[in-house]
Specification:
With 257 residues, this protein is an alpha/beta fold. Helices cover 34% and strands 18% of the residues. The strands form two sheets. The protein has a six-stranded mixed sheet with strand order 1-2-4-3-5-6, with helices on both faces. Strands 7-8 form a two-stranded parallel ribbon. The model has no long low-confidence stretch (mean pLDDT 97).
């Protein structure tokens, strides 16, 4: 393991970190059992689907939440419970799945999530908020600062909240994970939001105070590159920083406020 592999390893540095994936899956399944939900497709294959969680009454708009997992782990179904806070506040929440590395490149994943957002926008009217965690934070930042979304869709995006994002992919070139990603220097730069112009809508970068220094750096780099707000949430690490989306919290207010 290189020093950079260790820098970007979260689970070993989180108390009972290995228990989180199973806990997420259990909470997600319990939420789906009671939620108003529909599933839409944006392509061929099980992963090219979007779960939509609906509020009571007419939605105020749509929040798109993109899950993390270093572009190579997890699925949309693992994080359904994170729709709870926003749906209770009157928003629809769309959770897109996407193909994972090594089956596809990171640049292809960006394109897939853009297709998913476009399909959500086609089916639902009103404002759109983009939220993502870790690799999902990278993906929503990438969409906001590129031409991957058409102008009519992008103009509906009111706010972007990348949570613990990977904003500069260059360090990943020197990790063992790149055996899976297959990144080269050109793709790493092209896929790094820190090298893109700041998007036109408000952005709040969110990160936990107790995260690995590499992730705090990644969040700071994006906020500095874009001149946008950075919130460092006290007492939160890379896995529990997303829990605020489940109920009324400063993080949820940053998304829906």
């Amino acid at each position: 393991m290189t020093d950079l592999d260790d820098d970007y390893a979260n689970m070993p540095y989180i108390p009972e970190g290995e228990s989180y994936p199973a806990r997420w899956a259990q909470k997600a399944e319990a939420f789906r059992d009671t939620a108003m939900m529909l599933e839409i497709g944006y392509g061929t294959g099980e992963r090219r689907q979007v779960d939509i969680f609906l509020p009571m009454g007419t939605p105020k708009g749509v929040i798109v939440f993109v899950h993390g997992g270093y572009w190579m782990k997890f699925s949309r179904q693992d994080f359904s419970h994170l729709a709870k806070g926003a749906t209770e506040a009157g928003w629809a929440v769309a959770m897109p799945g996407y193909d994972l590395a090594p089956d596809v490149k990171i640049s292809q994943i960006s394109g897939l999530v853009a297709l998913a957002v476009a399909e959500v926008a086609r089916r639902f009217s009103g404002p759109i908020r983009l939220v993502g965690h870790s690799a999902g934070g990278h993906l929503v930042a990438r969409l906001a600062s590129s031409n991957l979304l058409t102008e009519p869709v992008l103009t509906r995006v009111e706010k972007v909240v990348p949570i613990s994002p990977v904003s500069d992919l260059a360090p990943l070139l020197r990790t063992a994970m790149n055996d899976t990603f297959g990144l080269d220097a050109a793709e790493a730069r092209a896929e790094s939001p820190v090298h893109a112009p700041a998007p036109p809508m408000p952005v709040t970068v969110w990160v936990g105070e107790d995260e690995r220094p590499a992730f705090r750096d990644q969040a700071r780099w994006l906020a500095e590159a874009w001149g946008c707000d950075l919130v460092v949430e006290p007492g939160k690490h890379h896995f529990d920083v997303i829990e605020g989306l489940e109920d009324e919290s400063p993080l949820l207010q940053a998304v829906i406020g």
